[in-house]
Amino acid sequence: MGRLKQKYEKEIRKSLAAEFRIDNSLAIPKITKVVVNMGVGEASKNKEVLESTKKDLAAITGQMASVRNAKVSVASFGIRRGMPVGLKVTLRGERMYSFLDKLFSINLPRLRDFRGLSVKSFDKYGNYTLGLIEHSVFPEIDLAKVQPRGLEITIVTNTNNVDMSKRLLELLGMPFEKKEK
C-alpha cells in the first residue's frame, strides 16, 4: 500500500469524519480518480509527436494514454473531425495515490517561483483542476529529447461540497497558497 493511501486510510478518514460530523463511512470524502490531459494539436502534421508524447505521459503516470480525437471540424485551427488532438489518462487506486504523492511532494515544489496552488480552482462539484505549463517538471522526462508541453490534472472527489474537498486535499498534503495577513 502506498504512503499516501495509508495516510488516508489511517488518519485522514477519521479526521474528516470527526470534523464534518459524518456518521456514514461511505459519505466520508475521498478521491475517486485523477484525470491527466495533454493537448497534441500538431500530431496531425507529425505522427512522431503523438508517439513521443504518449511515451512521456506513460512515463509520468505509469499507464498508457488514450488518444482523443476531434469531435468537430474547425477550419481556422486546421482541424478536421477524427484527427488526434489530445491524450488522456484516468488513474484510479494505487496508481492514483502514488501519482498524487509524487505530484504533491516532488513535482510541485520543483516549480520555479512556486508559492502554492490557488484555492479558486474548484468547480461546483468539489473537483480540483490544475494546469502545468511544462510537463518537463516531472523527473521521468528527459529534457534533451522532448519539446515542453502543457498538461491538465483534474482530481475528482466523491463529494459535492467544495469545503470538504478542500479539506481532504489539504490533509493529503496538497500545497495550497498561503493567505497574506
From TrEMBL:
Protein name: Large ribosomal subunit protein uL5
Domain Large ribosomal subunit protein uL5 C-terminal: 84-176
Family matches, as InterPro entries: Ribosomal_uL5, Ribosomal_uL5_bac-type, Ribosomal_uL5_C, Ribosomal_uL5_dom_sf, Ribosomal_uL5_N
Residues in Large ribosomal subunit protein uL5 N-terminal domain copies: 24-80
GO terms (BP aspect): translation
Domain of life: Bacteria
Protein's job: This is 1 of the proteins that bind and probably mediate the attachment of the 5S RNA into the large ribosomal subunit, where it forms part of the central protuberance. In the 70S ribosome it contacts protein S13 of the 30S subunit (bridge B1b), connecting the 2 subunits; this bridge is implicated in subunit movement. Contacts the P site tRNA; the 5S rRNA and some of its associated proteins might help stabilize positioning of ribosome-bound tRNAs.
GO cellular component terms, semicolon-separated: ribonucleoprotein complex; ribosome
Keywords carried by this UniProt record: Ribonucleoprotein, Ribosomal protein, RNA-binding, rRNA-binding, tRNA-binding
The keyword Transferase belongs to this UniProt entry's keyword annotation: no
Gene Ontology molecular function terms on file: rRNA binding; structural constituent of ribosome; tRNA binding
Pfam families per the UniProt record, alphabetical: Ribosomal_L5, Ribosomal_L5_C
Native organism: Candidatus Woesebacteria bacterium GW2011_GWA1_39_8
